[in-house]
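Weekly structure sync, notes
Attendees: PL, DS, HV (note-taker this week)

Item 1: Small ribosomal subunit protein uS9
DS walked through the input record. Source organism listed as Meiothermus granaticius NBRC 107808. Sequence as pasted into the shared doc:
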Amino acid sequence: MEQYYGTGRRKTSVARVFLRPGSGKVSVNGIEFHHYFGGLVKAVAALEPLRRVDAAGRFDAYITVEGGGKSGQVDAIQLGIARALVEYNGDLRVKLKPAGFLTRDPREVERKKYGKHKARRAPQYSKR
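Item 1 (cont.): predicted structure, written out as tokens:
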């Protein structure tokens, strides 16, 4: 069976994307894409790389994603799909790279420090 793979990461989310020639069915962790993300408006951005290269109905996407929240998972899936498309056809890189689909966002949550409320938020200063 012909299959193309791409890994996407964002914040603490990791998505493994498998693209197979098909009718455009997308499932995330065994659940239909739109049911998994519910009414999250940002979720449609995850499939944008497929639309950018006019491959929306040509591939079935089987995706496993773990860690983080829904927003980070959407971005991880987007990167994974873009990488899988480049594995399918290297020439698609020319369309995906300028749109920013192949750039891994390196930002991670900063750890909390002792004596602080959050990573940087200090206790309120009291003069007396």
